[in-house]
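Researcher: Batch entry, complex prediction.
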Amino acid sequence: MFRPLDEEKVFKDPVHHSIYVQDATIWKLINTPEFQRLRRIRQLGTTYLTFHGAEHSRFSHSLGVYEITRKIINQFERNGYKDWPQEEKMVSLCASLLHDVGHGPFSHAIEQVFDTDHEEWTCEIILGDTAIHRVLKEADEQLPWKVASVIRKTYDKPIVVSLVSSQMDADRMDYLLRDAYFTGVNYGTFDLDRILRVLRPHQGQIVVKESGMHAVEDYLMSRYQMYWQIYFHPVTRSSDILLKKIFRRAVELRASRHRFQFMLPSLQQLLEGKLTVEGYLSLDDNVAFTAFSQWAHEKDELLSDLCRRFLDRQLYKYVQLETMDLKLIEDLRGEWSRIGLHPDYHLETDTVVDLPYDVYKPGTETGASEKPPILLLDEKEQVTEISAKSDIIRSIAGIHRGKYYVYYPEELLISRADRLQAHTRELFHL
Amino acid sequence: MFRPLDEEKVFKDPVHHSIYVQDATIWKLINTPEFQRLRRIRQLGTTYLTFHGAEHSRFSHSLGVYEITRKIINQFERNGYKDWPQEEKMVSLCASLLHDVGHGPFSHAIEQVFDTDHEEWTCEIILGDTAIHRVLKEADEQLPWKVASVIRKTYDKPIVVSLVSSQMDADRMDYLLRDAYFTGVNYGTFDLDRILRVLRPHQGQIVVKESGMHAVEDYLMSRYQMYWQIYFHPVTRSSDILLKKIFRRAVELRASRHRFQFMLPSLQQLLEGKLTVEGYLSLDDNVAFTAFSQWAHEKDELLSDLCRRFLDRQLYKYVQLETMDLKLIEDLRGEWSRIGLHPDYHLETDTVVDLPYDVYKPGTETGASEKPPILLLDEKEQVTEISAKSDIIRSIAGIHRGKYYVYYPEELLISRADRLQAHTRELFHL
Amino acid sequence: MFRPLDEEKVFKDPVHHSIYVQDATIWKLINTPEFQRLRRIRQLGTTYLTFHGAEHSRFSHSLGVYEITRKIINQFERNGYKDWPQEEKMVSLCASLLHDVGHGPFSHAIEQVFDTDHEEWTCEIILGDTAIHRVLKEADEQLPWKVASVIRKTYDKPIVVSLVSSQMDADRMDYLLRDAYFTGVNYGTFDLDRILRVLRPHQGQIVVKESGMHAVEDYLMSRYQMYWQIYFHPVTRSSDILLKKIFRRAVELRASRHRFQFMLPSLQQLLEGKLTVEGYLSLDDNVAFTAFSQWAHEKDELLSDLCRRFLDRQLYKYVQLETMDLKLIEDLRGEWSRIGLHPDYHLETDTVVDLPYDVYKPGTETGASEKPPILLLDEKEQVTEISAKSDIIRSIAGIHRGKYYVYYPEELLISRADRLQAHTRELFHL
Amino acid sequence: MFRPLDEEKVFKDPVHHSIYVQDATIWKLINTPEFQRLRRIRQLGTTYLTFHGAEHSRFSHSLGVYEITRKIINQFERNGYKDWPQEEKMVSLCASLLHDVGHGPFSHAIEQVFDTDHEEWTCEIILGDTAIHRVLKEADEQLPWKVASVIRKTYDKPIVVSLVSSQMDADRMDYLLRDAYFTGVNYGTFDLDRILRVLRPHQGQIVVKESGMHAVEDYLMSRYQMYWQIYFHPVTRSSDILLKKIFRRAVELRASRHRFQFMLPSLQQLLEGKLTVEGYLSLDDNVAFTAFSQWAHEKDELLSDLCRRFLDRQLYKYVQLETMDLKLIEDLRGEWSRIGLHPDYHLETDTVVDLPYDVYKPGTETGASEKPPILLLDEKEQVTEISAKSDIIRSIAGIHRGKYYVYYPEELLISRADRLQAHTRELFHL
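Model: Structure tokens for the complex:
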């Protein structure tokens, strides 16, 4: 079972100052190879190519999510709120610590190319033949399955799920503050202390004392800004596009029995869509980068060019479109072929639309996020969905906005500009 | 020649808020493959295993050194100080940007094992067949050699050398602030704005207006604290020891014609002491980590164990000694052999003494640092070495302090504790 | 005429770090008795009774407005924008420094009771027989009148007016940051550096480069939060109500020839509505407080009670109403009389509605603010009002929101609660 | 007896973010007129004339000292340290909250002129006929006397005294951080969280876990810097000198039966040395400033000139001396008389020497501070005075340094410069 450490361990953390570990199981989980591996996976994938400070890892974020969860539960216990099920503390802490353990290198890009899902990998790692599994099981026979069901949002205590996964969960609160800190922008800062103080367990949910409404508004605005300033930055999207094209080309080459001069077993599993847990766990940013640096010397010109571009940050340029005009794209692809560029590799479109829905979407059952809404608790113990009371949240909840881009290798296009049609030249400012 | 950019470029930086690039040559240098490679080399080597935030790269530090140098020169130009040679601006900026371009992965560990020198590599990269060399030469035929001589401290304008290399140079000012920011400690903060405001060019040197003396004291105290809290932290030293042992074992194996299951050309050059510039440039943290993760499966048990320890952060433990007792160490080595541990790999000593000399060392000509002292300029234009005026600096300049440690694999020792002599068990708290 | 100081003067400022004075006229203005008097007037009136850190003076704010203006002009000059009229620098700096010099103690309360206007006093001080007038005139015969017309927004160069008075002027930028700093909230922080970098002079206006749109959104959201969290805080409003009642009672007593045991010439002028410039300048927070502390011993019970309450922070309590129901208020006044409370002094209503209009009000000519809208400048040099491009600003511009309160002395009401009607008791939670 | 509040009260504080009040007695003490009066007394006296941000009051500092004490005790209770006498919590909290309640306006200046002592006044207020006394007594009959004996350092539990009064007490920790925050310097920042974490109750003393030694070094260095940069700043000393001369002149005039045009009962008590508790409590910064502004129109030229100077910040200038040469001062006084200046009012000397002793003075029993030294607790539960282990503290403890100044009205001296002796002109740079 659980037992406190003789002396609490403290991690120095730039965002939360100190992170306190007081339980032996948490301490052991942090020291498993699977958790230490998160040190080798950047939290923000390729964002460091746009904001050079964004070099922090999923390790520090995972500790941060744990710490916020610990503080929330602490507050609940200190005030003796009866709606908080005290026996769920360790499940909550373990789930918050481990929720990202299934991330691989550049997850978003890889998930799109290989159709994998980091949450599923998280569960496989928790339930598989791993040190994490053994530590959890040692503490409580059922713990691995409990934690996995929290990750899958099927745990029978929804209040535990909402700690780790809701419109204002420990995960989001940590990453907004952490990503703001490391990129150096101050859009993402909000008053964490105040929010933690106004959270209340209430009938199986986490709600917010009404007096904290403005702090929540501030949090949601920070989120809005971080998405448009950082996460959706077109230069980062451009880096992601390169990444995806590298992997797509490697899959093609593998399928066509290309003999790679450099290959590792786990990479091979990845390219063939046959990843084992062990293989997945041996993938990290270092393996990906080493592959790119070696593949930069492969004979296949598309692959080597893409790899070199990624390493040397010679990214594709972009132009913004008013709307995603499919006819236009089809025409461009034709023209690309005509002038000797590869329409699949030298052209890419990108549509950014998911935020408005995600910022806050009250009252719907289905959708991309499916995360429970933020609820206010008034003095009469009545619960109200926040956009019914906050003008500002109601206003931004209705915002629906998209941005549309076309990405391309600028210097290749310039070198063939005279063969392009006039209106294409104009579109690309040539 | 040099020409300003049409529009200045701005990097968002968490330490300096904004970093301004106003000259086309600087912009091109930043975009060379050799400079972008610095993104793949951690500024603080293995320190992230002690302070998890310390994941920042030499890329951001190099930009920071450039920015501080730019600000200093800006202030000199704005005030029209006649002792500042205006024609040296670009040499200074290029040297400050490039001063660390010769760093490899985990430099301190690798330099000790392979007896290389990152400053020498910096010069080879600047003078070799590289994109950096071409950009510099394009701006001014002599520029590569000028910049290299600044790095080597032989440039005939010592004031330029002292910008990049002195007891209070742009390099140190940036790394103290940056390392403090990313580790999250606040020992390392000092009033950079104020220091920049009181610097003056004076007869071929950079001096400090006397009214800024207390700000310099504060800077030196920050430095003292950063060294003992961060840079000399015994857990970081333990990680470095593992690293060095990994490389040492790999060299031994290579020398004995061991057939590595994983090898890359540049690693092979490294292990054989035959690094070319091209080979050196292809080494980075990712290659090192990928090697370790593959070597963790090598048949040689020493190598695979060391690699696994490093990846999973199963570091050697340490005990502190009153003094470095060579007789004791010799006895321990004997005992290690006796109980079946490898004295070369399962035991290491470490002495930390270099700081006191480095904190501030007035009035000596020779020594480890050989960096010019900090000089105060009084109202009568007289220059005085700072420790003659500052009680606090005079006091700490005299401090000579060493710490002594023995590192070892704890669980191996515990498993054989009953075969150890009593006083050894006591020494290691067994 | 203007001449630079031999050596620039630097004020240490917690918000801007350093404030630089480079011109002799600015330096002399700061050292006039009229400007030094701003040290004795709190920037936020009674807000310190709600947020105890808000004890900063109009002196530091005025320096801050000057510094932001200086930085904006500096950027314009550095980049050589032709739309910036360089000869207007000194007028702009003087106007920004002096724009609040006509503030008196607790301006908002006093202006409402005595129907004065601090902007008018500012002009009278600039144009009257004062040290400020002499310093300005010494620099340029026309300067006092130029500066006054900037304050009055009638200056013939609207770009100068907009620096000091617009929807995003130096005044607002400083007070949001400063008030956030001193109260300790972090709602009010936004990225000043970034905003300063994207401002451009353009055809007689100050516009914002389109790439800075998100930074402006962030600034407006900070403003929104500061208004509802700080400036409109009901406890501060309660303190203001006490203040206004004190002055109202003193005017009544004076009109009825009450013989005050404590009086000063300037106070007498104030109560009689006959303030001279000299009299006005001798009013400050200290005089007001000293009067209150002495009047706390006056025989008139209403006055002495109000003064004691203000000094000892025994404020009126409040209840919030759904709407401002005039019939209800009239009923309450009747009931107050019936139970022996004074309806004019023991009851007050307060409606807070001005913000939504002020947050941002595009496209209207008249209104409370009458401040020019924020304009975006796109790459084709086209100017667009910001809410046409920013979803978020368009959303909040439409928000119209009011809050309604009734204030009263709680312990007096409690002591007579049994004589109140049932629904009144309910309203006041008795 | 003590009882917790139904709901804890939270003050927003810029230094500690939040200050928590959980007990009804503390809440009532804060709301007494005597404690609210601290809002009208600046924490740093005249320092705001040097650092304009230093306008914060003793009210916010007192809350801060309370909060730090609360956090220390919290940590002791949370960890269940047996050497902490739990029953002393309320005495400790009350004493920390009230320790400065006896401060008057510009205490340091007034204490020197009138030979009063703010600690003695604190005790008189706690024991006298005051609301504070009644609140304390209501909680516990003996509490007023207990709290007063803590203030007087005679309480029979020295561990309680050392919380409020030692070389590293809650008082000092708060004022260093607070004064640094409001002045805007960053010399005064140290890692409060870390220090609070390493404090331990041990055999009737508060000691520091040895691992926290470097944090203590950092705290002491901050202190050293704050003293020389802020507290001993010669411009602040100059303002204090004006203040003292104003009071001295007023006493003289009062003694010679001068008829003041402006006088208040409490001021009269002060000038005659007959202050009652009630009179003392009605003195605050506002009364002092109002008196100065009125006395600026007194007929006595010395008094009116001094008052005008203080209000308009026309301070005396200063020159620094190598040593305090009494013969030189005597000569200057003679020369002052000869040229028609008043040697008592137009000349003042100032010696600043107290710091070195105060920074840290181990091992002595008597002296200016008489505050217990800082003790380290090692792993074997041995206690050692810190300078025995810390090189840096040992070094600075030995520093003995004085600065010597002469202050004078510059423009008066300039106007008579031709009548001065040559070497005097030289001394004053005329």
